[in-house]
Design goal:
Elements lengths: L1 H38 L2 E2 L5 H5 L6 H9 L8 H4 L5 H7 L3 E2 L6
Parallel strand pairs: 1-2
Keywords: Signal
Protein name: Helix-hairpin-helix protein
Organism: Edaphobacter modestus
Length: about 100
């Protein structure tokens, strides 16, 4: 009877272990996924017009205006310089970045 209990306990624990591992693995990958998402932003100072057109809301005309208005020291200059209307900027602001232009 004692051996049966030990065996049952061992089987039960071994079945529960794989269930808890995916949760641990998922929580450990979240910071890496967030860091990867931050680096997936498109740099408005160096992106090609085709790369910018991949952003929903940016077509040929806006991509050309963005390129023609370079360099930018901050991404909000897309609005302050009249390159994009505020509504379009609000939709894309989390997908773009403006790295400081090199001298």
């Amino acid at each position: 009877m004692r051996i049966f209990r030990s065996s049952f306990l061992a089987v039960a624990l071994s079945l529960m272990l794989p269930l808890s591992m995916p949760a641990q693995m998922a929580s450990s990958t979240k910071p890496a996924a967030a860091a990867a998402a931050a680096t997936d932003k498109i740099d408005i100072n160096s992106a090609t017009p085709d790369q910018m057109k991949a952003i929903p809301g940016i077509g040929d005309a806006y991509a050309k205006r963005i390129v023609d208005g370079r360099p930018y020291t901050a991404k909000n200059q897309l609005v302050s310089r009249g390159i994009l209307p505020q509504g379009v900027y609000d939709k894309i602001k989390d997908q773009v970045i403006a790295t400081k232009p090199k001298k």
